[in-house]
Amino acid sequence: RARIRTVMKTVMIVTKPSDVRLIKLTRELVKYLITTPRYGKDHGVVIYVDENLKNEKRFKYEELLKSSPLIEDNLKFWTRELCANQSEIFNFVLTLGGDGTVLYTSWLFQKVVPPVMSYRLGSLGFLTNFDYQHYHEHLTNAMEKGIRVNLRMRFTCTVYRRIVTSDNKMMAKRCGETGEIMMENIMNGNGSWDAVESKAPIDSIAEHHCALDKNLPCFVTQPVETFEVLNDLVVDRGVEPYMSLLELFADDEHLTTVQADGLVVATPTGSTAYSVSAGGSLVHPEISALLLTPICPHTLSFRPMLLPDSTELRICVPFNSRSTAWASFDGRGRLELKRGDHIKVTPSKFPFPSVCLDNQSRDWFTSLTRCLRWNERERQKGFVVVEDHVTDNETDHDDKGEENDAGPYKIHNTSNSQSDDDDTSTKVEEESEQGEKNEDLHCSSEETGSGSSGGEHEEGDEPGKWRVVTRGKS
């Protein structure tokens, strides 16, 4: 991925608000960026920090102003309103915290997002690839050599609310014979009817062939809120004891009826969050797709699935649902979906540009190993048991009834292959035609029970096979 060189005149710093130890690091970073000359000037860049830090005692704002005359002119404060209405004034964003701080930054910028460099100062740090101890090197390289950016996909969630009216002028008719739903075309006013739902299957028609035509009241919805989501949209049952009943549509086609504790609609970035905990797959950030993952579904066949990012999803709460549903967007903005409400999910026009430490794929695989311990386990040992040469002292110990660490039995590989490494090689025993045996490699065990016979008993005494030798008590 090619480097992007841009002039970073204005830098925004987003600090994890609940971590007081990061306030000192923010103060250190502000002083460094302002007082270090950049781009041929005698001062650095303009810095914006959280407005709440101005009155924070640990930030020591008044003392910071006295430390250098450059700070008073180049240190400013950002607010949520400023990020929402004038996001274009920021050229670069630095986050100090964990993954939650990165998601909060995405939440601040609901439209265009500046490039974001995230320092790993939180708990998990899957999305934070940079080590704060090397911030001098990172920032110098970013401003002088450019940056590599990963455009992470976001999607737009629009909440539609049902409009409640006193009279239902819009009516639909369900055909009793075919199950087809027809709505009166009120656009042209000619009294014609348009089909809004296709005919029922043949077997279903046979079961309900005696049903009569039925008039159905219709309702109108209107959009009320819109959210840009980087991680996931979660629709669940909330505090209700009943499972969620949701109707899922893809490109205006009924996809399925969700009967589960909830549903997760995740981006590739969010595939390593709630979705993977619910059994969803890991999706590489370069794959543009929507990941549907049910939460504790009531059917065994409801498995996670990937849909193209161009798919328009609608998640509806039907009128026959026992309870309402609750929705959250990147863990924020939690709201209730009443019967008749729905959420439309479409691809966003504003991706989230995160700065890569090395390259996109390597950063992602490194995070999988570092944070999730992906596919890590103790390596399985081979069948070959490596054993040193048995000495005369060990033979004496065996005769006295002492067992070594290998236990009462020792197994040797009698295959004809031998390694060049003395520490890991397996001794090879070759049996001569006259029946001579090599006494250097043997297995011994002490039988403490009565009736043990002396001498040796050999099993599998063939070249290239495993051989167990037991020695009786002499």
TrEMBL record:
- Residues of the region (Disordered) are 385-474
Q: Which UniProt keywords apply?
A: Kinase, NAD, NADP, Transferase
> Per its UniProt record, what InterPro entries does this chain match?
ATP-NAD_kinase_N, ATP-NAD_kinase_PpnK-typ_C, NAD/diacylglycerol_kinase_sf, NADK
Superkingdom of this entry's organism? Answer: Eukaryota
Provide the GO biological process annotations: NAD+ metabolic process; NADP+ biosynthetic process
* Pfam families (UniProt xref): NAD_kinase, NAD_kinase_C
- Which Gene Ontology terms cover its molecular function? NAD+ kinase activity
Biased composition regions of type Basic and acidic residues, renumbered to the chain: 385-400, 424-445
Its family remark reads:
Belongs to the NAD kinase family.
Q: What is this protein called?
A: 10668_t:CDS:1
Q: Which organism is it from?
A: Ambispora leptoticha
